[in-house]
Amino acid sequence: MAHSKLAEFGVKHIAKGIGRLTNEVLESGAGSYVTTTSGRRMLDFTCGIGVTNLGHCHPAVTKAVQHQATQLVHGQVNIAFHKPYLQLIESLLPMMPHKSLDTFFFWNSGSEAVEAAVKLARHATKKQNIIVMQGSYHGRTFATMNMTRSKTIYGEGFAPLMPGVFSVDFPYCAQCSIAKHSDFKYNYDNCCMDPVSKLELLLKRETSPSDTAAIFIEPVLGEGGYVPPPKAYLQKVREICDKNNILLVLDEVQSGFGRTGKYFATEHFDVRPDILVMAKGIANGFPLSGIVSRKELMDMQKTGSMGGTYGGNAISCAAGVAVAKAFQDEKVLENVNARGPELTGMLKECAKDPKTSKVIYDVRGLGLMLALECQPGQNYAARIQAKCLEKDMLILTTSIYDTIRFIPPLNISKEDMAKGIQIIKEAIDEVAGEGQRVY
To answer: Which has fewest Cβ within 10 Å: 183, 223, 321, 378?
Structure first.
């Protein structure tokens, strides 16, 4: 089929419910770039929404997958162990943020892993209710749709959803009403801790601790705007969980595997999760997810109660082993912590520059999980995104607020980061120069 007809074919035959940034057709990818069937070579600051953390077609991952495809493609976990599954656990154990996290279960998608965490929490505590954060994203299955509170579109029209889910404020300091009314005397560095008070009230008013199995938190809010919480907040939530026999589940589907400059974002906050959820970057594009917890909790489940046809697929696990090794061999975390400040520095300069400051409301993030929140009412984020696309660069918007998220490869070169920074700056400058529009 001619490349000119491919997009037209896709629009006609692919479910309308799938939204997309562009109707370009991707043909290949290498490192920080993708190439379309129309011949465009585009700098990719999306990484498949934080999946190809080591860039497209990483040589070591590709080699591991090619070799595994000649050995064993599918070794169903309810039938027997397979070697890559066990090797992946061995590779991941040293990366875990706490030594208590020693027992694993692998599945396919992030949503499935979140559901596995729900099953474990309910079974281990013999309690039903789940608390999630406003702004959270945990998936699009029937259970996780009701746990996702970033946008109504994900659950709109699909009710009834899983019962027993309650939500509470996340410490989003840039949008906190108390911070705004105090002229930002309260802020990220001096949080009012109102979300802690709201959580304590929720446990008194709506879901008793005796009925609450777990609190689910993204240690950096993902779809909700790439919002890191104050360190003291997560530590206080840990205390509340310990006091009330509630499990703390950290969803690191998007923030894990080096995205924030540490293997897992929870390391920034010195907080121990009871259950850690992982996916996306674990296998650099091959379908794989999982949960890890302490053995005493995992062993409470009856044999046969967990499983799944493709869970922990042999090829995906082999890719995961290669990813873990690449992090060590290529000093990926060092690169994240070098490149992140370069992009953040440019964004903060734009926030101070009189010519562009009218566009920018907030700059935030950790490592290479960074966000630019724009001033409301002028659709600035989408306009900047469109400018970048014109300049052969892929970026994504997110959140109900006007926000761009930057998700470049963690091993991006200094030269490619500089190129990306230049494109983004040009896009911001051009949008700022256009002035306001009526929407």
So the answer is: 183
